[in-house]
Write a structure and sequence with these properties.
The protein has helices at about 20-30, 35-50, 85-90, 110-120, 125-135, 145-150, 155, 160-165, 180-200, 205-215, 220-230, 235-240, 270-280, 290-310, 325, 330-335, 460-470, 475-480, 510-520, and strands at about 5-10, 10-15, 60-65, 70-75, 140, 180, 245-250, 250-255, 260, 375-380, 385-390, 440, 445-450, 485, 505, 525-530, 540-545, 550-555, 560-565. By secondary structure, the chain is α+β, with helices and mostly antiparallel strands.
């Protein structure tokens, strides 16, 4: 391991950037709870990782309170009411183009505010002050930020407002250079000022309501809508004013005396649950860690779960998702029975529920298109409340609103252009998200919020870390840093939705003999470096009631950090 697991007697946080972790720990030390701290870190990530997370993007949140109550706040916007459902087929050749036409209603500000209203103890300005500080005063450019801007230099240059932030003076910022976002700082300052003024008159909840109005109904909303319309988008004042993040049921299933909690089929969370149940049914307990049998079996389970994601998942307000059947014993047994230990499925198994889909069209590209967006934050407080959130939205595929320093959520790129698909475009419908925070409640009475960036690799990395901990007995940081693998057989969740049937990427620390055996079974093995951000960046906090401690770990594959206290 390159790091040690961190332990504290009270509380802990793990987040995608060290300053975000610092913000959360400061809130905890000041007496705030896990929701206060998680929102502080989450808002800060939109400033500290502006290539990966957008202050006006998405922020799915999963909360499990110390008394056992659990809920998810979707933190995901829907398509504007004026969106023509077939527009991408008619006008864009079946593609979802870069620019404002991939815009859905920005959800993150409302998601953080909703979490604070329902379960927090602090006001908006109390938690947003860290983001405001680092937007105004700046922070040091770190390697992944520079690499991301360099990789997307031409994309950022397409829009003057993006180039002004990410290519100051026409140059990619140097490592260690101070990165300032003055327009975003002014936007955050306005939200904080409005919240403080209302809080002084009417209390904490009045302040939160004022922050929401300031973003969704005032001058900020007007600026977003005016610019979107100017650029050919559909976002309206009514779309913004009427938006509220949906409080969704938590998907939960028992496993070996533990209980896994995930968000619903508006994201890929239930596929994590299904893959875990499949692995258990198929006999994963009998295989050594990262042996050929282990990797093969887990890969086939993941492919089956992601096949069901492809065939069925979508916004449950629009699509009938047969979730109980998909996670039911009969379906899990049938899917497990399809797995052959001597041979990899060449693509994805077909549906067992519903009609056959259109044939899978493999990509002709040699390298999958990967959008390196998303971050993550996990917090557990001294009371045992757990917070898990996966904020997201990149900044190179849509224009920054001039003067605001933010991009109204571009997450429409995860809808399918064909409205007939379960995840197809429709006015008022949400795209199916890849970000999917999770929480495990342990049989010892502990709790573990965990998650990762990584697009379609997210549930694959999360499942491997979960098994590393609770099957193979690894310590938390060891479980996170262990070598990983990922299948690319399912169609990508990002436009242009490419599939690479059979492809299995494996970090080079897995022995060559194991990789050779997997290739012999029919996997299209591709060697990753010994450690790569493509394999995700899992962060987790785990309470250990039998020891009276809280453990925290953060992945070294990206600039994530943990703090315990």
């Amino acid at each position: 391991m390159s790091r040690h697991t961190l332990y504290g007697p009270r509380h802990a946080v793990a987040a995608g950037h060290y300053l975000a972790a610092t913000a959360a720990m400061t809130v905890l030390e000041e007496g705030g709870n896990a929701v206060d701290a998680g929102c502080a870190a989450g808002i800060a990530l939109g400033v500290l990782q502006p290539d990966l997370v957008n202050v006006a993007g998405v922020a799915p949140i999963l909360i499990r309170l110390a008394d056992g109550r659990a809920e998810s706040i979707a933190g995901l916007g829907h398509w504007p009411a004026a969106t023509p459902p077939d527009v991408f087929l008619r006008e864009h050749g079946g593609m979802i183009p870069d620019g404002v036409r991939r815009t859905v209603i920005p959800a993150a500000p409302d998601a953080w505010i909703t979490a604070l209203e329902r379960h927090g103890t602090m006001g908006f300005a109390d938690v947003a002050r860290f983001a405001l500080r680092w937007a105004a005063e700046g922070f040091a450019v770190f390697p992944l930020l520079r690499e991301s801007i360099l990789a997307h230099r031409d994309d950022y240059a397409r829009w003057e407002s993006n180039a002004a932030i990410f290519l100051p003076g026409g140059c990619v910022p140097a490592l260690g250079e101070r990165f300032v976002q003055a327009d975003l700082a002014r936007t955050l300052a306005y939200l904080c000022d409005e919240a403080r003024a209302a809080e002084a008159r009417g209390g904490r909840l009045a302040g939160l309501a004022a922050a929401r109005r300031a973003f969704y109904e005032g001058d900020i909303a007007e600026a977003m809508v005016r610019f979107q319309r100017q650029e050919g988008g559909w976002l309206s004042r009514d779309d913004l004013a009427g938006f509220r993040s949906r409080i969704e049921p938590v998907v939960s299933r028992p496993w070996r005396g533990h209980e896994l909690l995930a968000c619903g089929p508006w994201c890929q969370g239930p596929a994590l649950v299904e893959a875990l149940l499949l692995a258990e049914r198929a006999g994963i307990a009998g295989h050594a860690h990262n042996s050929a049998d282990y990797i093969h079996l887990l890969t086939e389970c993941l492919k089956a779960a992601m096949a069901d994601r492809e065939y069925h998942f979508g916004d449950p307000a629009f699509v009938e998702v047969p979730l109980e059947a998909l996670l039911g014993e009969a379906h899990i047994a049938a899917r497990a029975a399809e797995i052959r230990m001597d041979r990899a499925h060449p693509s994805l198994p077909g549906p067992l529920l519903g009609p056959a889909p259109a044939p899978l069209r493999p990509s002709a590209r040699a390298i999958p298109k990967v959008e390196a967006d998303t971050s993550y934050v996990a917090v557990v407080d001294r009371h045992g409340n757990a917070f898990s959130a996966t904020p997201s939205d990149g900044s190179w595929n849509a224009p920054v609103v001039p003067g605001l320093g933010l991009i109204p959520s571009n997450r429409g790129c995860q809808s399918r252009p064909d409205p007939r698909h379960p995840n197809g475009v429709a006015p008022g419908k949400r795209p199916r998200l890849t970000p999917n925070p999770a929480i495990l409640v342990t049989r010892e009475g502990g709790v573990m919020p965990f998650g990762t960036p990584g697009g379609d690799v997210q549930i694959q990395a999360m499942l491997q870390v979960l098994l590393n901990l609770f099957q193979h007995g690894m310590e938390l940081q060891e479980a996170i840093e262990a070598p990983r693998f990922a299948s690319y057989a399912a169609p990508s969740s990002f436009a242009p939705f490419e599939a690479f049937p059979g492809r299995l990427a494996i970090e080079a620390r897995v022995p060559a003999a194991v990789r050779a055996e997997l290739a012999r079974r029919g996997h299209g093995v591709v060697e990753w470096p010994e450690s790569t951000w493509l394999a995700g960046s899992v962060e987790a906090v785990l309470t250990l009631p039998e020891r009276g401690l809280v453990a925290a770990g953060a992945d070294t594959r990206r600039p994530a950090h943990a703090i315990a206290g």
